[in-house]
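FAQ
Q: What does a multi-component entry look like?
A: The components come first, one per line:
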Amino acid sequence: MHVFLGITGASGAPYAARLLEALSAAGCEVGVSASRAGIEVIATELYGDARLAPDETMARFLEHAHGGAVALHDPQDWRAPYASGSAEIDAYVICPCSMGTLGTIASGAMSNLIHRAASVAIKEGRRLVLVPRETPLSEIHLENMLRVRRAGAVVLFAAPGFYHAPERLDDLVDFVVARALDQIGVEHALSRRWGQDEP
Ligand SMILES: Cc1cc2nc3c(=O)[nH]c(=O)nc-3n(C[C@H](O)[C@H](O)[C@H](O)COP(=O)(O)O)c2cc1C
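Then the predicted structure of the entire assembly, as tokens:
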């Protein structure tokens, strides 16, 4: 399975790291592209240093991939396969998805590879999962979410549940990542399903 993973500047870098781990562990080919703000959030939330150099940040981030083919693309790399509908891509996930990127996608504008990939997914009728995080939500945010949903995207809010008795932060991260993987049909054992007995 070939998956595009776009990372933008909303809080939630641990979700992106876990997603990369799970996709690569499942043997997916993964194309990663992170916006400038996305890289800053990764540096802040994963490595505790907002000023960490972007190259170093992404080099460390890619260490979350275990196997599988993973390629990093500059957000201005228009030659990447994700910039065109002619490339055979199975699913697109933007995680985390900032309200800025969500609004851009909703408007149809595309100023980087992440916006373009989302636009391609929508026009080609392919699986697109957006994982936004913001609170509270303005009327504009809500309208944009409705707009992308109507265009075919799945809006999977970064809102972990607590009914599975999480013990660690990772359990909350896994809850959201598991739902995203379910949406694109990637097998995982990240979280117990409702109604499933304890192992
Ligand atoms: C540490 C940090 C956390 C942020 N958290 C959020 C957030 O949770 N949601 C959001 O929509 N924007 C958040 N922002 C603001 C976005 O990064 C900003 O709007 C940026 O322009 C988004 O650009 P992008 O969509 O190209 O990544 C955050 C920024 C920083 C630096």
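Q: Is there any commentary attached?
A: Sometimes. For this entry: The helical segments are 13-25, 36-47, 54-62, 99-107, 113-124, 139-150, 169-184.
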